[in-house]
Amino acid sequence: MQDLIDELGHLPGVGPKSAQRIAFHILQSDPVDVRRLVAALTEVIDKVRFCVSCGNVSAEELCRICSDARRDGTVLCVVEESKDVVAIEKTREFRGRYHVLGGAISPIEGVGPDDLRVKELVTRLASGEVTEIILATDPNLEGEATATYLARLLKPMGLRVTRLASGLPVGGDLEYADELTLGRAFEGRRLLDV
Amino acid sequence: MHVTHVSLADFRSYESAELPLEPGVTALVGPNGQGKTNLVEAIGYVASHSSHRVSSDAPLVRAGTQRAVVRVAIQRDERKAMVELEIVPGGSNRARINRSPVTRARDALGMLRTVLFAPEDLAIVKGDPDGRRRFMDDLLVLRAPRFAGTRSDYEKVLRQRNALLKAAGKARRAGRKPDLSTLDVWNTHLSTVGADLLFGRLYLVRALTPLVAAAYEQVSLGQGTATLTYRSTLGEDIGGPVADVPTQYDVPNREILRERMLKAMEEQRTAELDRGTSLVGPHRDELLLTLGGLPAKGYASHGESWSFALALRLSSYELLRGDGDESAEPVLILDDVFAELDASRRERLAELVSGAEQVLVTAAVAEDVPKALTGGRVDVTKGSVTRVR
Ligand SMILES: Nc1ncnc2c1ncn2[C@@H]1O[C@H](COP(=O)(O)OP(=O)(O)O)[C@@H](O)[C@H]1O
Ligand SMILES: [Mg+2]
Ligand SMILES: [Zn+2]
């Protein structure tokens, strides 16, 4: 029982008290429901992996968005996490493809460019198909710093580098912006001057 | 402006407290340790989102509870407003204005303005540069609340940049190649926010300097000249002496300050890597207080230091009072200061503040409150608050 509580406690947003509550809830649940949860977890680790191209979670080697020929291959939207892809897809404003960095630059947490999927991004751009990069990192300090870093790195490659328009709640996470605000931020994206 | 009502819940020693207030003078009287300072600290917190006694918020929350609530009703001309702050140590504070929540607590800054005198003020004159920087930044935020964002952004960027320098220094000492690929990015961000903070401070010091000189003259009855000088790590030419010709003194614009800061970081790069920390910028600047040409710190007597401390607060009051219309006048709070002063400084301070729209005074015994400040009286004993006059 303690093992279960400890494991649950490692989940984001779950403190020791909630972990205990969830553990006892599981204990009292119908075993059929619990087995379904176990099956879902097993399937996730067995079948879901990261897209070799964009780094988004995917069931296949190449995710649905990367393999969808109707998507605009000339525009690439760079985000921190897979959950940001979900948030942006909901707005239906964006028809290009994505690149998931896997975080943001933060020396305090020991995260530098080498710890993010930056090399993969540069490799992806080598083919020349992409002409515009939209930097959609979070509107907080680490997200802004990551955007500045990437803009300076990519500028010499002659790409159009844009940043989501302000109006997003500053200091926040992209995923918490509502669909309308996020949609408008896409329309009003501006060229980054670095 | 003045405060018409204060409500506390789980703030310091108070499980709950209600205190109606009026314009003019109110003395809060009671033996030590009864909760007088706690009350005025709460009012000051609403104005500045920080305590004049402690740097962390944890002690503000009543022992055994998780959050404190301070609600203040404010009268500004004919307008009434209610500001409520929920203090959550280790989390984000929440604020409401007229019962509606605001996005960030700091959006409620500027609703109430206070100038608080306390025994701790002596440390601004005698203590470390950090206390003088805090004095400037607190006043800057009271005057222009948007600087609360600048100040907090600056601290965040600084922490990131310092972490980078520290890691790079460590790698270098271990014989590995330091990763400095993002240093330029942090330099950009630090210099942008740093220039804004510096710009705000320079403007502030320029406006404050003549007021400090005048206030010191009043408090000390013409004994010497008090001057402020802003010493910038970006160079001596920035923030030079401003007392002589205050009108001709020019504050460089933000763009110039930003470039100077970038240049200074460039020049200090090796030293910064060696030390593993950021060596230039507003966090290393100093506000020099001089008395008759000599630094107040180390030279001024105890009495002179007190006069200087009082002059800093009195000039803050004058500065805030001069912002816009009459309703900009801040509430004056004098926490236990009269007990610290000799008879003549007491009388002069009392005279100088007696005309203010609202003055809240705390004292252990009623005799500590000078005659010039006779007004309402509230007794504070064991956390119960009773108006007796
Ligand atoms: N977080 C807290 N929880 C409970 N009691 C507190 C807390 N902080 C301070 N106190 C109590 O408040 C009292 C001090 O009140 P204070 O207002 O400073 O006194 P004074 O009337 O001398 O100004 C002390 O008895 C102290 O123990
Ligand atoms: Mg006290
Ligand atoms: Zn993909």
Automatic annotation (TrEMBL), chain A:
Q: Which Pfam families match?
A: RecR_C (PF21175), RecR_HhH (PF21176), RecR_ZnF (PF02132), Toprim_4 (PF13662)
This protein's record includes keyword Kinase = no
Q: Which InterPro entries match?
A: DNA_Rcmb_RecR (IPR000093), Rcmb_RecR (IPR023627), Rcmb_RecR_Znf (IPR015967), TOPRIM_dom (IPR006171), TOPRIM_RecR (IPR034137)
Toprim domain: which residues? 74-169
User: What Gene3D superfamilies does its record include?
Assistant: 3.30.60.80, 3.40.1360.10, 6.10.250.240, RecR Domain 1 (1.10.8.420)
Task: Supply the alphabetized keyword list.
Answer: DNA damage, DNA recombination, DNA repair, Metal-binding, Zinc, Zinc-finger
Q: Where are the zinc fingers (C4-type)?
A: 51-66
Source organism, top-level taxon: Bacteria
The question of whether DNA damage is a record keyword is answered with yes
Q: Which PROSITE patterns match?
A: RECR (PS01300), TOPRIM (PS50880)
**Family from the record:** Belongs to the RecR family.
- What does this protein's UniProt record list under function? May play a role in DNA repair. It seems to be involved in an RecBC-independent recombinational process of DNA repair. It may act with RecF and RecO.
Cross-referenced NCBIfam families, in alphabetical order?
Answer: recR (TIGR00615)
Listed HAMAP family: RecR
Give the protein's recorded name.
Recombination protein RecR
Organism annotation: Kineosporia mesophila
Organism phylogeny: Bacteria, Bacillati, Actinomycetota, Actinomycetes, Kineosporiales
Automatic annotation (TrEMBL), chain B:
Q: Which residues bind ATP?
A: G30, P31, N32, G33, Q34, G35, K36, T37
Keywords for the protein's UniProt record, in alphabetical order: ATP-binding, Cytoplasm, DNA damage, DNA repair, DNA replication, DNA-binding, Nucleotide-binding, SOS response
Subcellular localization: Cytoplasm
Q: Which Gene3D superfamilies match?
A: P-loop containing nucleotide triphosphate hydrolases, RecF/RecN/SMC, N-terminal domain
Q: Which CDD domains match?
A: ABC_RecF
| Ranges in coiled-coil conformation | none
Q: Which Pfam families match?
A: SMC_N (PF02463)
Task: Show the InterPro entries listed in the entry.
Answer: DNA-binding_RecF, DNA-binding_RecF_CS, P-loop_NTPase, RecF/RecN/SMC_N, RecF_2
Domain RecF/RecN/SMC N-terminal: where?
3-372
Q: Which residues form the signal peptide?
A: none
The highest taxon in the source lineage is: Bacteria
Q: Which NCBIfam families match?
A: recf
Membership in a protein family: Belongs to the RecF family.
Q: What does this protein do?
A: The RecF protein is involved in DNA metabolism; it is required for DNA replication and normal SOS inducibility. RecF binds preferentially to single-stranded, linear DNA. It also seems to bind ATP.
Please state what the protein is called.
DNA replication and repair protein RecF
